[in-house]
Structure formats: structure tokens, C-alpha cells
Write a structure and sequence with these properties.
By secondary structure, the protein is an all-alpha fold. The protein is about 65% helix and about 0% strand. Helix 4 (about 85-95) packs antiparallel against helix 5 and helix 5 (about 100-125) runs antiparallel to helix 8.
């Protein structure tokens, strides 16, 4: 039905609209996001500037859903609750760099999950509520968003909707291992 759907009010089919959106994402990645991320990872863009610029780009270009709770809101929480800004910057740079392979990806996901868990525990131990701590469930979307900026042919964005659709269709059932779940999700996209 999707592939044969007629043009809508915009005069384009859903397939044509999605192709336009994909082209806009690629253009934004190549012209803005990839250079910004490379500058941050190379130490040329400070964390505060990087976070702010990513937020601005995604507010002006709603092409990923990054401005939501698993994207920019998660990013803000991580930076805001971190008691050691240098450690936070180091952890982010380590996690956001595109992995060389699946084993490195799994290791980065697990290491960043561990960091996020520690941040949450420290936040709560400091007398704050769990509500204000970054959520570990946001990690796969957050990391994969930045990985796909660096290599969109290899690293798909871990969208909750995609995961839910795959589970509803019984294509795949996530486990309790977030790193392995992301790799399974990635492999399905390779088919």
C-alpha cells in the first residue's frame, strides 16, 4: 500500500516525500553535522558549544526527532548532572566516535551505559530525584544518532518506533542486553 500510494496534498507520493526527507538529512549531515561533530571530537569545539549547536540544528531541521527525550533532552541531562565536566567531555568523545566494528560498538555502548548509570546514582545520592537523571534507555538512540552522522551506511539510528514495529511484527525481540540489541537491530537493517 505504501509503495503504491497516490500523491497526497503536497503533490508527491509518500515514497517521494520520504526520498526528499532522506536527501535533506544527507545534505544536513554533510554540510553541518559532520563537520561540527568532527570539530568536537578533535577538541576544536567545546562541549557547551557543541551541545548548543546540535540543539539549534535539530530545532531548525526536524529530520530525526533528536530534539526529544532520547536525544537533546538526554544530552542536556547528561551534561547538567555531571559533576566533573572534563570526565563528561571525555566520556562523550569516547562514546560518540563511530566504532570501527561491531565489537567496538558493543563495548562503547556498554561503557557509556556504565557512565550513565554512575551519573544517575551520583545524582540521586546527592539528594535529587531519579526524574532528573539521564535514562539508560536513551543510550542506543543517542549514540547511534551520532554514529550515523559519521557513517550512515553502517550505523542506523535506533528509533523506538522501528524497534516497536519489528517486535510487533515478530521480526525480532529485544533482550536485556542493550549493546546486543543494537547490533541485532543494525543487522536487520543490513538485510
Amino acid at each position: 500500500e505504501y509503495l503504491s500510494a497516490p500523491p497526497g496534498p503536497e503533490g508527491k507520493t509518500p515514497l517521494e516525500l520520504e526520498a526528499d526527507c532522506d536527501a535533506a538529512r544527507v545534505k544536513l549531515i554533510e554540510n553541518e553535522l559532520k563537520p561540527l561533530l568532527a570539530g568536537y571530537l578533535a577538541g576544536k569545539v567545546p562541549l557547551a558549544d557543541f551541545k548548543s549547536k546540535v540543539d539549534g540544528i535539530n530545532k531548525r531541521n526536524e529530520l530525526w526527532g533528536f530534539k526529544g527525550i532520547k536525544g537533546q533532552m538526554f544530552f542536556n541531562m547528561v551534561v547538567n548532572v555531571a559533576d566533573d565536566p572534563e570526565k563528561c567531555d571525555h566520556e562523550l568523545k569516547s562514546a560518540l566516535a563511530a566504532p570501527a566494528n561491531e565489537q567496538v560498538a558493543a563495548s562503547r555502548i556498554r561503557a557509556f551505559l556504565s557512565y550513565i548509570k554512575r551519573l544517575g546514582e551520583q545524582w540521586v545520592a546527592g539528594g535529587n530525584t531519579r526524574h532528573g537523571a539521564p535514562k539508560m534507555g536513551s543510550v542506543p538512540f543517542f549514540l547511534s544518532y551520532f554514529w550515523q552522522i559519521q557513517d550512515r551506511e553502517v550505523w542506523p539510528v535506533y528509533y523506538t518506533n522501528g524497534v516497536n514495529t519489528m517486535t510487533d511484527l515478530n521480526i525480532w525481540q529485544p533482550s536485556e542486553d542493550v549493546a546486543e540489541d543494537y547490533l541485532a537491530f543494525k543487522r536487520i537493517h543490513e538485510l
